[in-house]
Amino acid sequence: MSAIDICQINKSYRSLHALKDVSFSVEEGEFFGLLGPNGAGKTTLISIMAGLVRADSGHIRISGFDVIDDYRTARKKLGVVPQELVFDPFFTVRETLRLQSGYFGLKNNDDWIDEIMSNLDLADKADVNMRALSGGMKRRVLVAQALVHKPPVIVLDEPTAGVDVELRQTLWQFIGRLNREGHTIVLTTHYLEEAQNWCNRIAMLKNGRVVALDTTEALLHRVAESQLILQLDDRDLPDSLKPLVSQYDIGHTSRTWTLRISHFTDIEKILSELRKYHIVVNDLQFRQPDLEDVFLQIMDSRLN
Ligand SMILES: Nc1ncnc2c1ncn2[C@@H]1O[C@H](COP(=O)(O)OP(=O)(O)OP(=O)(O)O)[C@@H](O)[C@H]1O
Predict the structure, then answer these.
(1) 299 CB contacts (<8 Å, ≥6 apart)?
(2) Are 123 and 48 a contacting pair, CB within 8 Å?
(3) Origin, by domain of life (predicted)?
(4) Tell me, what's the pLDDT at 184?
(5) Which strands, in side-by-side order, build the sheet including 281-287?
(6) CA of 99 to the centre of ligand 1 (A)
């Protein structure tokens, strides 16, 4: 059984078709990335998973339970860390987490609440009012809130937006541990390095459609090019090498050229061509494609 099964979801807001026939499954224990530019439809899809927004057609099951027909059971299987910081300012951190536990019918949940707070470095804020917390601390509480009922499936909607390095590390350590213990994780983030480091599989949305769905490794191999970044003396690049200039080349003004490389042997060919014209290479870097390159290529593609 899949942890999340998304089948033919459509959603419109008036004339805006925000999700178009979106279908994919996330298997149990996966660390799955849901990526896309602003407005692609990620939050809408997550809101439908959480039962906060109704799809116009299609269905979603969480651990086999339909998010509409079996709302209560499906919701118990899911922990969502929302993007927006919304809290009742009158409660302390512990009260907020107790309230959330009560919402799921859990009494005497303090041992687990203490463990979550300790793992998120929130223990010394347990009795502080929500309104007195910094933005980063509030985000920790959002994560804690999503975990109070130990959901098998955890969805994080941009959990590291605007948080400092220390919290990022704390958060990833904890999320990584939960994933190793068997929790399924779905992550949306605009920090593609985080997605590349953590996600074993990725879906990319563009204008409400799934435009890529594959393992992270396969995505890295499938689309992007390796690059040779050259800083030359003040002469122009020879015409023979200009066809290799990457479309992502940005810097001839600083005498830096980004060339596409399909094989290591291309490097020697390029260098010997430069030698032929006595062009001096001041600096040279080899860069393998990363998820950002893949993302930009997929989002740029005229095919989508
Ligand atoms: N309640 C709403 N009413 C009208 N339009 C909406 C509503 N919620 C979302 N939209 C629109 O639907 C589209 C998808 O928005 P959504 O928030 O799902 O995108 P996203 O991929 O999460 O973006 P971001 O990366 O900026 O969070 C956008 O064009 C957005 O303006």
Answers:
(1) 37, 204, 206, 211
(2) no
(3) Bacteria
(4) 98
(5) 256-261, 226-232, 281-287
(6) 29
Find the helix or strand (DSSP H, E) in which 178 lies: helix 165-180
Nearest to 86 by CA among 100, 75, 73, 102: 100
Q: pLDDT band for position 304 (50/70/90)? A: low
What stretch of H or E contains 10?
Answer: strand 4-13
Short-list 277, 285, 298, CA closest to 256: 285
The closest alpha carbon to 248, from 237, 236, 260, belongs to: 260
The response to whether residue 42 sits with its C-beta less than 6 Å from ligand 1 reads yes
**Residues forming beta bridges with residue 123, ordered by sequence position:** none
Q: Which residue of 22, 44, 189, 192 sits with most ligand 1 atoms within 8 Å of its CB, as the best mutation to test the pocket? A: 44
For the chain, give the percent of residues with pLDDT over 90: 75
Helix axis angle, 135-147 to 93-103, nearest 10° = 30
Rounded to whole angstroms, how far apart are CA atoms 23 and 87? 32
Residues in the chain: 304
Higher pLDDT, 275 or 248: 275
Distance 38 CA to ligand 1 centre (A): 8
Rounded Cα distance between 231 and 225, Å, is 19
Q: What pLDDT sits at residue 223? A: 67
